[in-house]
Amino acid sequence: MTGILVTFAAILGLAVGSFLNVVVHRVPLGESVVSPPSRCPGCETRIRPLDNVPVLSWLLLRGKCRTCRCRISPRYPLVEVGTGALFAGLAAHFGAAPELPAFLYLAAVGLALALIDLDCKRLPNALVLPSYPVAIVLLALAVAGPAPLSALLRALVCGVALFLVFLGIALVKPGGMGFGDVKLAGLLGCYLGWVGWDSTVVGGFLPFLLGGAVGLVLMALRRAGRRSAIPFGPFMVAGAMIAVVAGQPVGHAYASFVLG
């Protein structure tokens, strides 16, 4: 049963990843994600359904438009594969738990936000703000099943707490963190709080650790300086996803080490 669920989640992730490519391109431009249909950026020819199959079409077309042979970035299949892998990993971790749809949504919107932040250095309200009610509704539906009400209450508390922590950081050090990061922190806090207190702490701390490590590497390679602006959203999403899966054991291990 688990194998079937993971396989289905992976296939669903590939399809969702194809849609995320549209979202990442159009949302920063303020364009609709449903109309007009996808077209080749070179010749403006509408992409045929058979040429829009995730990953497979890109491979068969050798990364080029069928009509004008314009190069199609390998980022498109990579996003599709990445989304499929995230979906499969979450399905394997949660199994058929009622909260799985909520975390699949987190993976999808989180990946889209991370890519947009890398491209544009901003986290659009058009994605972040609607994700709050979506998260609350999906987690509330999980409570309507076998999940405990305490998990939803903890999620709301942790969402507010992480929002306030990041807001405090943004106010204490203006320019060091954007308000988009603050709003994203509240959303991620809801999901982390659902998993547990340990995951919330680990998920709140990891972005700074990951961001600092990447910043040091970039400076060592002379690709960035001490004052270079590095998008923080991708580290927040990565830290949250790691904490969702491994936050509790990491938190327990740290507590055991500190307390002996």
Question: Mind explaining what this structure looks like?
Answer:
The protein has 260 residues and is an all-alpha fold. It folds into two domains: 1-95, no CATH class; 97-260, no CATH class. It has helices spanning 2-26, 56-60, 75-94, 100-120, 125-144, 149-172, 179-195, 197-220, 233-259. The longest helix has 27 residues, at 233-259. The protein is globular, with a radius of gyration of 20 Å.
Question: What's the arrangement of secondary structure elements?
Answer:
Elements: H1 2-26, H2 56-60, H3 75-94, H4 100-120, H5 125-144, H6 149-172, H7 179-195, H8 197-220, H9 233-259
Family: Belongs to the peptidase A24 family.
Organism: Motilibacter rhizosphaerae
Domain Prepilin type IV endopeptidase peptidase: 105-215
Percent of residues in beta strands? under 5%
Largest sheet: none
Mean pLDDT: 90
What is the ordering of alpha helices and beta strands?
A: HHHHHHHHH
Number of strands: 0
Global outline = globular
Structural classification: mainly alpha
Low-confidence stretches: none
Gyration radius over CA? 20 Å
What oligomeric state best describes the polypeptide chains here? single chain
State the helical fraction.
over 70%
Number of helices: 9
Counted up, domains total 2
- N- and C-termini, Cα separation: 40 Å
Domain Prepilin type IV endopeptidase peptidase: 105-215
Membrane topology: Multi-pass membrane protein
GO molecular function: aspartic-type endopeptidase activity; methyltransferase activity
Catalytic activity: Typically cleaves a -Gly-|-Phe- bond to release an N-terminal, basic peptide of 5-8 residues from type IV prepilin, and then N-methylates the new N-terminal amino group, the methyl donor being S-adenosyl-L-methionine
